[in-house]
Amino acid sequence: MENNDILIRLRYALEIKNKEMAEIFRLGGEEVTVPEVIKLLTKSDDESNEQIKCNNSMLDSFLNGFIINKRGKQEPKSGQPDPSEPFKKNSANVNNLLLKKVKIALSLTTEDMLDIFQKAGITVTKGELGALLRKEGHKNYKECGDKYARNFLKGLAIKYRE
Fold first, then answer.
1. What whole-number distance in Å separates Cα of residue 115 and Cα of residue 58?
2. Lowest-confidence pick of 4-13, 42-51, 136-145
3. Is the pLDDT confidence value at 86 over 70?
4. Backbone angles phi, psi at 117, to 5 degrees
5. 33, 40 in Cβ contact below 8 A?
6. Distance between CA atoms of 11 and 157, rounded to whole angstroms?
7. pLDDT confidence tier of residue 147, bands split at 50, 70 and 90
8. How far apart are CA 55 and CA 74, in angstroms?
9. HEC string of the chain?
10. CA 162/CA 153 separation, integer angstroms
């Protein structure tokens, strides 16, 4: 799943306005104007469309800004790793990061997340969810496929737009 598609689906699910999107990017350390947000959120079906591609660092900035927007700025405690650590160049863990950071931003419990997946029509066990939320490199880490990410965003839309 492309990063632009993730932004489009997340914006739809949580009914975020363009101006709010620009503010969330700013909170995450990325300066994006409202016209640029519109270009990020347009689907590129034809060549004349001037879509801006959302790279991994832009998506990471948005997700970090989303956490700050929902939970407030938090100073890292001494001895603990910085939660806004940039993710590795490997784009495979983008979906895992999406799940983790949306979970943090919306203060979702494991039960909430399982319910969101259930609303989308997919059954995920606690063990599977735990593996998806693990840090990359952990022995029980499982890569989050597009199917899980897509269904999570679909479930969010069902939950928050009811």
1. 29
2. 42-51
3. no
4. -65, -40
5. no
6. 9
7. very high
8. 25
9. CCHHHHHHHHHHHHCCCHHHHHHHHHHCCCCCCHHHHHHHHCCCCCCCCCCCCCCHHHHHHHHHHHHHHHHCCCCCCCCCCCCCCCCCCCHHHHHHHHHHHHHHHCCCCHHHHHHHHHHCCCCCCHHHHHHHHCCCCCCCCCCCCHHHHHHHHHHHHHHHCC
10. 14
Cβ-Cβ contacts under 8 Å for 45 (sequence gap 6 or more): none
Identify the residue whose tokens are 């895992």. Answer: 96
C-alpha–C-alpha distance, residues 111 and 114, integer Å: 5
- Rounded Cα distance between 2 and 54, Å, is 8
**In residues, how long is the chain?**
162
Predicted TM-score (pTM) of the model is 0.85
Quote the pLDDT of residue 93.
84
